[in-house]
Amino acid sequence: MSEEQFSYPEKVDVQNCDKEPIHIIGKAQAHGVIVAANPQTFQVTQASENTLKFFGISHQDFLGISLEKLIGELPVKRLQTSIFEESGFTAEELKINENSFVMLAHLSGDNLILDFEILGKTWNPTHFQQQLTSIINGLDTTESIPSLCDRAAKLMKDIFDYDRVMVYRFDEEWNGEVVAEEKEEHLESWLDLHYPASDIPSQSRKLFLKHKVRIISDVNYEPVPIASEIFPVTNKPLDLSRSALRGVSPIHIEYLQNMKVGASLTAAIIVNGNLWGLVACHHYSAKFINYYQRETCKFLTQVFSNNISTIQTGIFNKKISENSELRQRIVEELKIEDSLAEGLAKTSVPFTSLIESEGGAVILDNEIKAFGKTPKEAEVLEIRDFLAQKDEVIFHTKNLKNQYPKAEKYKKSASGILSFKLGRAEDNFIIWFRPEVAETVSWGGDPNNKVSYNEEKQRLSPRKSFEKWTEKLDGISHSWQDYDLETAKVFRENLNQFLLAKQKEEISRLNQNLEEANKDLELFSYGISHDLRSPLRGINGFAQILKEDFSRDLPAEASETIDTILKASNRMEGIIDDILSFSKITSGELEKEKFSNKKLLEELLSSFNIRTNFPDTEVVIAENLPETFGDRRMVFQLWSNLVGNALKYSQRAKAPKLEIGSISENNREVFYIKDNGIGIAKNDQDKIFNVFSRVSKNDFKGTGVGLSIVARIIEKHNGKIWIESEPGKGSTFFFYL
C-alpha cells in the first residue's frame, strides 16, 4: 500500500479483490467488540461502534477511557506482565454489563488489540477434553490421505454440527478441489468439485497462515465500523490480521450469499509450513461457535495436518529410497571416457525411469540425445531456448502450453516437463517429458463466468451459479511430486560431479600433452642451436676468409656482397640466441627470491659498458628503488631487454637520456624506464610484444623477440606491462610483478 492509501478503498469488486487490503478492513463482526489501546498507558484509542450494546457505554464516552475502568485492575496487570515478559497472552473470561465475554489480546504494531467476544454457550472442560481425545483417537489410526480427509470431515461434522463440512485441497496453481465431504442428507453433494484460485485470493491464503481459524457467525450481519478509522499516533489504519472479530470482505460475503450460506467456519490445513488446504464448514442459517469450540477446531486441524505430513513424509522417503538405488546404479555405470549422452544411453537403467515419464532428453554443448517418447529434435531445441530464459535451476510444469503456447503441437508427448540446468552453462539441460492425460474436471459453477454486474451495488460481483459444470481438459500431464523434484535435484549434483571429473580428466590430459610439447619445443630449440649454428659458422668463417685474404683482388661489388653475407649470418646468430632465450623463459620454472633492483641494474649497466658504447647517454636510476620477489635470472633478462632497447632507440637523440624508477599505484610498486628516443606510434603499441614483430626502421638492429621475452617473463610472474609513447618524444615502459 502506498503512503497515501491508508484506508480501505471505497470501491472493491471481483476484478481487483486479489489486491483488497482485508487486514485493514476497518470494521468488526457483530458478535463482539474490537478495542485498540495504547500498550503503555492502556488508554482506549479506537473501538468498534457497538460499545453501547455490549458494554453499556456510548462510543463517544468510551474512547479515551482507561481499560482498568472496563475490565478491572487485575486483568490489566496480567496484560502488563504479558507485554513486559513477551510471554504471550491468554484468553480471559470477563463479565461486563451483565454480559459474559472472552477477551482475546494481541499486539499489532503500536497497538494492543482486544477482541471482546461473547462467550456463548457455557463450555464444559470435561466435554472439551473428551472432544480432544476423540480427535486423537479418530485421526491417528488412519493410514492414507483420502481416508484421513474423510475421517476429519466426519469428526468436524459430529463435533460442530454444521450442515456441510468439506476438506478442500489446493493444487500447485491454487485451484481447489473438495476431496472429502460430510453433509445433511437433503443437500446436493459437492464432493470432487473444483473451484478456481480466484475464489480464495492470495492475501486471504496468507492470512490463514497467521490466523488459522476463521468464523463468520452470520453472513447477513451488519458490519460495525471502527472509529476512529485512523490511529491518531501513526496516522495509519488498524492492522487486524490476527483479530477473530475482524470484519469480512464484502466480496466474500456476497460470494457466500450467492451460495445461500448463512454462516461459515474455515480452518487452515498447514503442512510443513505451507497451506495444503482448508476445512470449510457451511451452515445455511446463522451459527456461532465460541472461542473454546474454535480451539477444539484448531486442535483437530493441527492433528489432521500433522498426520498428512507424516503420511506424505512416509511416501516421500519411500520414493526417495527407491529412486536412490536406481540413481546409484546409473551413476556407477557412467564411464569417464564417454560423453554424458553416450554414457546415459549405455546404462542398464534408463535415466527416464528415475522419474516417472515417457521420454527424456540430454542437451549438452548443442548436441541432443533423445530417449523414449519426445518431441522432434527441433522442438526440443525450442524448449531448450524457452528453459534458458528461466531463472530456476530446476523447472517443472504439468501444463507446458499454458506457459509456452508453441507446445500445443506436441502436447501428446510433452504436456508436462521437468528439467534442470547442467553445470554453469545456460543452455545445457536434462529434461523429462510427460504426455497429455485426458481428464474431465467438474467445477462448482462455470469458471469462465466468474463475475456478473450487480446493478444494485453498481459493481462487478461474484458468480451466482454454483451448479456443477464439467470441462474436458487437454494439454495437462500428471503433476510432478515433491519426491520427483528432490530426485532431480540430487541427480543434477551427481551429473555435475561426473562432468567435473571429465573436465579434470581432460585438463590432466591437456597438461600432459603440454608437458610433452614443452619437451619437444626444448629439444627443437636445442636442435636449432646445434644444427643451425654449425653451417652458420661455416658460412661466417668462409666469408671472413674471403674478406681478409681476397678482398684486395675482388671488385668492390663482390666485397659488398661478402659484407652482406657477414651481416646476415650475424643477424641469424642473434635470432637463434633470442629463440633459445624465449624457449628457456617459456618452459623454465620460477626460482623466486628477494633481491635488490638497484644492485641488479648496476650489474647490468656495467655489462653494457655505457661509457664506451654509449658515451653521450645519461642514465639516471632512482635511489629508492624497491626490492623485488621473483626469479632474479629472468628479471635480469627483463631489465636487460628494456634497457638495451632504450639505449638503442635513444642514441640518436641530441642529449640521450634514460630514467629508471618506480611509483606506487593501487597498493603496487610499478617500475618504469623512460627514454627520449624515437617513440612508437599509437597504432603500433599493441604489436611490439608479439614475437618477431618490429615497428622501427631497418637501420636499428634487432630480431623482434626481445619485448616478447619481456612480456613472457612478466606473465610468468602474474604481472602486467604497458607503454606510454609518442613518435619523436620517447617512450616510457611501466610494469609490475
From TrEMBL:
Residues 144-302 form the Phytochrome chromophore attachment site domain. The keyword Oxidoreductase does not apply. The keyword Iron-sulfur does not apply. Its EC number is 2.7.13.3. Residues 527-737 form the Histidine kinase domain. CDD domains: HisKA. It is an enzyme of class 2 (transferase). It comes from the Bacteria. Keywords: Chromophore, Kinase, Phosphoprotein, Photoreceptor protein, Receptor, Sensory transduction, Transferase. InterPro entries: BphY/WalK/GraS-like, GAF, GAF-like_dom_sf, HATPase_C_sf, HATPase_dom, His_kinase_dom, HisK_dim/P_dom, HisK_dim/P_sf. GO terms for biological process: detection of visible light; osmosensory signaling via phosphorelay pathway; regulation of DNA-templated transcription. Gene3D superfamilies: 1.10.287.130, 3.30.450.270, 3.30.450.40, Histidine kinase-like ATPase, C-terminal domain, PAS domain. One of its GO terms (molecular function) is phosphorelay response regulator activity. It catalyses: ATP + protein L-histidine = ADP + protein N-phospho-L-histidine. In the N-terminal section; belongs to the phytochrome family. This is histidine kinase. It comes from Salegentibacter salarius.
